[in-house]
């Protein structure tokens, strides 16, 4: 099994100003399939008055680790990414991240792709008896064959990323690894779902494992016939229903 730093070496780590990072993602056509993740690692608003301390953006060539504690407000560029349904916001447990973004900035988020649900659909036989959302650490181990050492997260994000101390660099590296792992997982799982869909002769829509966060709650990707946002829940998600499960499982 590879060490996480081998995974990290595949992409360039770049710590840049928020405006520069966001402009790259928004303006460059080749990065429209970028992934974005927010890390909230403290249970309440810290010394900076924010739940959201770090936002990571991963493309095929770069990782941007953005220190929100130095900004305090959400710029228009970041808002555009969050509400853009063409840009995938990937991770595990994104409903919690989106909720904290809503609490801090009152911004809705569209096309949140939960890799912990996505992997169960991509590999239904392997995960058929595993309850709940699969953790990022297990996703990385099972699919990328890498070990994510949670001990690399040596302190809380609330201290900020300013400075060149070893603890700061450790935080930056951990955030970059986290984002790159999500980016690579998403690319692999998309292909795996296509294979599973063909094998099962079952169309797998994205909203089986993706949702929006609108008005403070998780909602379905598509509005209903009345134009209203329907609440999303794994308990009522279509791939759990009897007819679909019958078609899925051998």
Principal-axis shape: globular
Number of domains: 1
β content, as a range? 15-25%
CATH superfamily: Ribonuclease H-like superfamily/Ribonuclease H
Structural class: alpha/beta
Gyration radius, in Å? 18 Å
Layout of SSEs?
Elements: E1 2-3, H1 4-8, E2 12-14, H2 18-27, E3 35-39, E4 54-58, E5 62-67, H3 76-83, E6 89-91, H4 94-105, E7 109-114, H5 115-122, H6 136-144, E8 146-147, H7 166-200, E9 210-214, E10 217-219, H8 242-248
Parallel strand pairs: 1-8, 2-5, 6-7
Antiparallel strand pairs: 3-4, 4-5, 7-9, 9-10
Describe the protein.
The protein has helices at 4-8, 18-27, 76-83, 94-105, 115-122, 136-144, 166-200, 242-248; strands spanning 2-3, 12-14, 35-39, 54-58, 62-67, 89-91, 109-114, 146-147, 210-214, 217-219. Helix 5 runs parallel beside helix 7 (166-200). The protein has a 4-stranded mixed β-sheet with strand order 2-5-4-3, sandwiched between helices. Strands 6-7-9-10 form a 4-stranded mixed β-sheet. Strand 4 and strand 5 (62-67) form a beta hairpin. It has 8 helices and 10 strands. With 250 residues, the protein is α/β, with parallel strands linked by helices.
Core attributes:
single chain, 250 residues, alpha/beta, Nucleotidyltransferase, domain 5, four-stranded mixed sheet, 8 helices
Summarize the structure.
The protein is an alpha/beta fold. Helices cover 38% and strands 16% of the residues. It has one domain (2-248): Ribonuclease H-like superfamily/Ribonuclease H (Nucleotidyltransferase, domain 5), CATH 3.30.420.10.
